[in-house]
Amino acid sequence: MTPRVRAREPRAGSWDDHARAVERLRASYAAIPAGAPVRLAKQTTNLFRARHATTSPGLDVSGLTGVIEVDAAQRTADVQGMCTYEDLVDATLPHGLIPYVVPQLRTITLGGAVTGLGIESTSFRNGLPHESVLEMDVLTGDGEIVTTRPGERLFDTFPNSYGSLGYATRIRIRLEQVPGCVALRHVRFDDVELLAKTVAEIVVAREYDGTRVDGLDGVAFAPGEYYLTLATWTEEPFAGRVASASERVETPSDYAGQQVYYRSVQQRETDLLTMYDYLWRWDTDWFWCSGAFGAQHPVLRRLWPRRWRRSDVYMRLLGLDRRFHIADRLDRRAGRPLRERVVQDIEVPLGNLGAFLDWFDDEIGMRPVWLCPLVSTGTSQGSRWPSYPLEPGEVYVNVGFWGTVHVGPEAADAPKNRAIEAKVHELGGHKSLYSEAFYDRPTFDALYDGANLAAVKATYDPDDRLTSLYDKVVKRR
Question: How far is CA 440 from CA 391, 455, 467, in A?
Fold first, then answer.
């Protein structure tokens, strides 16, 4: 079956184009006054934390948004650092190839996923995006372009450094061969411990009930209502898999239309998607967060243009809410307590998933939440990645939750977020840093190996032009 791709051509480039773009980047670096902080001149973001204000000019990365080359025979791609996964998939999927891990949102960039981490349903067997990188070119804080490879200190420290060590201009990644469709099976669990046991078995066997599992994620809708979604790559769109007692799957489902993907997890036992639609199944409704804008209401959804059913549109709407404090004003008018924004992804060891979800239900009470198992492959020496030290080979579960909680006058002090940080630490887990963080400096340095980050930064950014990781991600008071 021919993979579904967008009508427009992806942003293609060439090695000559890339060289010219790098020269413009270096020229923009040279134009930044000595001593001024170095930052990207980038308008869009998938981060959920405030940017530090600066009046200095930024780095010109406008020419670093494409795919330089896809080597279908070697199953590799050379990709510019600001290329979105949407454009990357558009370039690789016609070859029957995709990156080892494709994060859920279309506008996440490859460079962003490598320096800031990323995850998806293939992470239980392929790890995280940086673990399929073969080499990369990095603009460091001293203005040099450094080519670095696995085993080198800059390479190994770069993941989870969020631009504090530099910005990737070119990344060479491995690609995976895929067919045109994905068969899904949604398996319900009433007991989270049984779900965890099943995840452990799938990670080892790479199958469930005799069927190969290529992708694995899940949703916790409520205490006692958990689902694992098992994905199997397939070329057989008309396999006649049973969708319900009275319905048979004959054509791939379309969740960019009137139907909402996350609701289907509860509504049907099996499903079929094109590979393209499977990769972006969560983007169309920003998991379930589009409901906050009315995009899931049947009437409004018919009026909402299909091309606007995507995460970056919702992100812009969220930006308007932040700018004009729309939700806060409505809450005050209705007499509701102030909200605390709780937008986080955390990882806990599989054995502690039940303990975290039980605590989360009691203390936070936000549902649904996303569940995504992962196993880090570790560095080329098999050791932990220093800036995000998951134990190689150990099964973790990423728990993603995105919304607000009414907490009252103390909302400004972020009590729920602080409690989550403490609990995750207690359970031997880690928290992603794309959103607000509240750690004190000693705790932060212990969790993310601040000493190693500082040493590598001193080598490649001796004049301290780049903002440190702690200053970048921790909310300052």
Answer: 23, 20, 17
pLDDT at 245: 38
DSSP-H helix ranges across 219-310: 261-267, 275-279, 298-303
| Domain end marker among 262, 282, 302 | 282
How many beta carbons lie within 10 A of that of residue 449, not counting itself? 19
Cis link prior to 37 (omega < 30° from 0)? no
Length reported for the chain: 477
Average pLDDT on 401-422 reads: 92
118 with 363: CB under 8 angstroms?
no
User: Whole-number mean pLDDT of the chain?
Assistant: 90
What residues make up the domain containing 81?
15-177
Pair of tokens at residue 51: 């940017």
Q: What is the CATH number of the domain that holds 63?
A: 3.30.465.10
DSSP 32: S
Look at the chain and report how many structural domains it folds into: 2
- In tens, the pLDDT along 183-237 reads 999 999 999 999 999 999 999 999 999 999 999 999 999 999 999 999 999 986 5
Tell me: do 116 and 187 sit in the same domain: no
